[in-house]
Amino acid sequence: MSEKRMLIVPAKLVDKINANRGDMSQAEFVEFLIDSQLKEKTKEPQYATKEELHSFEQDMKKLLRSFFDFFVSYGLELGKQSPAAELEELTSKLQGLQEDLGSDNEEKKATIKWK
Predict the structure, then answer these.
(1) Is residue 61 part of a domain?
(2) CA 109, CA 56: separation in Å to the nearest integer?
(3) Per residue of the chain (115 residues), what is the pLDDT tens digit?
(4) Which of 7, 24, 88, 105, CA to CA, is 20 to 30 A from 68?
């Protein structure tokens, strides 16, 4: 049989242990907490910074712009006659995207609607 010792802790701490231990005994729960705190963290989660997210957003807008430019020029070279209204709508969307690339306004987001 393993040797046992008594640990005197405040009553509030015992209540906190009992409220959070679930099916574990008090000793198992305290041992689990100690082990989890002392264990070396081999892989800490990495989070993106605000600057990295902003840079990613700008890069995605540039990529979308290049895709739009490619498909518009490809469509024009094939000689497909698209209605003028569609071409004007696409041009206005591209200009809006270009303005977003130049501004630092974080509230604007690029959206694409497929028909």
Answers:
(1) yes
(2) 13
(3) 578 888 899 999 999 999 998 899 999 999 998 988 888 666 666 788 888 899 999 999 999 888 888 887 777 666 656 566 777 777 788 777 777 776 655 555 556 655 4
(4) 105
